[in-house]
């Protein structure tokens, strides 16, 4: 049984909220009483996701946002505050995966793309969230890294460097903002059963059986399990947790 939280009167901002872990987290925030701003580059998906919540009587705002464009990120965060009056929680989840590549053959375009979304997108999102939170003197930010932020895997140098960078952003910013009443942490998901992972399996970039066997728990994680980790980090139950890169990976990094 999952724990329950009461986020009534609070506002959450989630990137990559149109599907997968972002969608599951936005839904979990809303189910716990928060007003939720859902940001995603896919207009159709994010509008459908927000409509599902509002049709259920929950407060939700759809925002079309490309996190590689800082101006779009700033506008999305500002719109959230204009609409709901404040910003209490943020989950910076938007990310992309790239095919495994020999480090000597990696293209500059591929390297720059994965860093633009996975690292610069988190930087821009956190930057503009913190501008509002520091005025309030309160808030909780969770960034999405990966087990790839904690370990190395052959063929994944560029992706893993972007996810290692997220942890660097998280820990340094956490030290800066903890004295101001704002907690910043990261989750490091393992292989999770999301549309992105499904696409990797379909393209032959990932073998599901091997991925399941590589996680000591013996299965893929679910988006809902990642959402529960995010909500806990944003909750009063994690009030003394600062600057952590939390593995949520079925034991992968414990080996």
Automatic annotation (TrEMBL):
Lineage, highest ranks first: Bacteria, Bacillati, Actinomycetota, Actinomycetes, Kitasatosporales
Domain of life of the native organism: Bacteria
SUPFAM superfamilies named in the record: NAD(P)-binding Rossmann-fold domains
Protein name: Oxidoreductase
Keywords, comma-separated and alphabetical: Oxidoreductase
Organism field: Streptomyces bungoensis
Secretion signal span: none
Family: Belongs to the short-chain dehydrogenases/reductases (SDR) family.
Recorded GO MF terms: oxidoreductase activity
Stored InterPro entries: NAD(P)-bd_dom_sf (IPR036291), SDR_fam (IPR002347)
């Amino acid at each position: 049984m999952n724990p329950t939280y009461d986020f009534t009167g609070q506002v959450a901002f989630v990137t990559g909220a149109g599907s997968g872990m972002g969608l599951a987290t936005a839904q979990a925030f809303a189910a716990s009483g928060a007003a939720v701003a859902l940001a995603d580059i896919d207009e159709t998906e994010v509008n459908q996701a927000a409509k599902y919540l509002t049709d259920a009587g929950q407060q939700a705002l759809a925002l079309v946002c490309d996190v590689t464009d800082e101006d779009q990120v700033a506008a999305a965060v500002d719109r959230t505050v204009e609409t709901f009056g404040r910003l209490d929680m943020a989950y910076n989840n938007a990310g992309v995966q790239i095919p495994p590549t020999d480090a000597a053959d990696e293209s500059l375009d591929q390297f720059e793309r994965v860093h633009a979304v996975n690292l610069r997108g988190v930087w821009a999102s956190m930057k503009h969230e913190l501008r509002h939170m520091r005025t309030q003197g309160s808030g909780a930010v969770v960034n999405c890294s990966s087990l790839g932020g904690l370990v190395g895997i052959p063929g994944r140098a560029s992706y893993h460097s972007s996810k290692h960078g997220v942890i660097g952003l998280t820990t340094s910013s956490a030290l800066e903002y903890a004295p101001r009443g704002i907690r910043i942490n990261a989750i490091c998901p393992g292989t999770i059963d999301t549309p992105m992972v499904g696409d990797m399996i379909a393209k032959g970039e990932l073998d599901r059986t091997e991925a399941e066997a590589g996680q000591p728990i013996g299965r893929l994680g679910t988006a809902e399990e990642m959402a529960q980790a995010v909500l806990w980090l944003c909750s009063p139950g994690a009030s003394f947790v600062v600057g952590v890169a939390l593995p949520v990976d079925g034991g992968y990094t414990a080996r």
